[in-house]
């Protein structure tokens, strides 16, 4: 216990070492706060007017046809598939398989548990809130589950941030790490926006999915980092025998 307290005090005086864990804690707390605030507004029905206003900004006010050229509609449908379970399972499964082949059992388990538990959380929250899908326009993507939160936004955020964190652990240099993080966030962002564009989610569904996804990815990163730190301490501890 004394050693753990000593490490904590040292970490407080080492801003460089503590920067990433503190940032992850901030994302975790912020994500949970944002989700709970949105969920509370949704439960009280106070998000409907804002959601409709933002939803209809993407459409002609008279015909409700999507704004933009025809190719943009096709592109949105293809982009939204990036957050679908088939592609997520294929991408995550390929990475896990590669990690197993090279003998990296720990990272493989981390990816599986992080993304798998994120998908489970998504389905649990959908069943709990049971929010109906938008009914203002025809859906361009077939859906069979509840609307809140967006599973595509949530699972995509967890999956790509988790995969990105693996790459960031393997490379040196802040430029590369910033690029990997930016690309993970970019993919999560365009997938979420595409869900609103194709008419299957309210904007608040997507925002809530992003918030939970970022919070969960941060939590799993913190847990893995804590376990790695504990294992290093156990390995470096002197043998009393």
Task: Throw out a few tags for this protein.
single chain; mainly alpha; Vanadium-containing Chloroperoxidase, domain 1; 9 helices; 241 residues
Concise overview:
This protein is an all-alpha fold. The chain is built from 9 helices and no strands.
Oligomer: single chain
Helix content: over 70%
The radius of gyration over CA amounts to 20 Å
The count of helical stretches stands at: 9
Gap between N and C termini, in Å?
20 Å
Biggest beta-sheet profile: none
* Name of the level-1 CATH class: Mainly Alpha
- Tell me the count of domains: 1
- Element-level helix/strand string: HHHHHHHHH
Tell me, briefly, the overall form: globular
- Sheet/helix structural class: mainly alpha
CATH architectural designation: Up-down Bundle
The name of the CATH topology is Vanadium-containing Chloroperoxidase, domain 1
Number of strands: 0
Would you give an account of this structure?
The chain is an all-alpha fold. The protein has a single domain, classed as Vanadium-containing Chloroperoxidase, domain 1, CATH 1.20.144. Helix content is 75%, strand content 0%. Helix 5 packs antiparallel against helix 6 (105-129), helix 6 (105-129) runs antiparallel to helix 7 (151-170) and helix 8 (174-197) runs antiparallel to helix 9. The chain is globular, with a radius of gyration of 20 Å. The two termini are 20 Å apart. The mean pLDDT is 85.
């Amino acid at each position: 216990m004394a050693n753990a307290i000593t490490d904590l005090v040292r970490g407080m005086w080492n801003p460089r070492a503590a920067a990433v864990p503190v940032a992850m804690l901030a994302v975790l707390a912020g994500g949970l706060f944002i989700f709970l605030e949105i969920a509370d507004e949704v439960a009280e029905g106070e998000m409907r007017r804002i959601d409709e206003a933002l939803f209809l900004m993407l459409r002609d006010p008279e015909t409700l046809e999507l704004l933009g050229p025809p190719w943009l509609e096709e592109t949105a449908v293809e982009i939204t598939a990036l957050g679908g379970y088939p592609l997520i399972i294929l991408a995550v499964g390929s990475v896990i398989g590669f990690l197993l082949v090279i003998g990296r059992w720990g990272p493989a388990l981390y990816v599986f548990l992080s993304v798998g538990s994120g998908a489970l959380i998504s389905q649990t929250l959908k069943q709990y809130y049971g929010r109906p899908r938008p009914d203002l326009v025809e859906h361009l993507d077939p859906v069979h589950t509840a609307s809140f939160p967006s599973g595509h936004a949530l699972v995509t955020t967890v999956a790509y941030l988790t995969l990105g964190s693996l790459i960031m652990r393997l490379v040196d240099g802040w430029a590369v790490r910033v690029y990997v993080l930016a690309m993970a966030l970019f993919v999560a962002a365009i997938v979420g926006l595409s869900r609103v564009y194709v008419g299957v989610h309210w904007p608040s569904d997507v925002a809530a999915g992003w918030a939970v996804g970022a919070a969960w990815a941060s939590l799993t990163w913190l847990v893995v980092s804590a376990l790695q730190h504990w294992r290093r301490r156990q390995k470096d501890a002197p043998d009393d025998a």
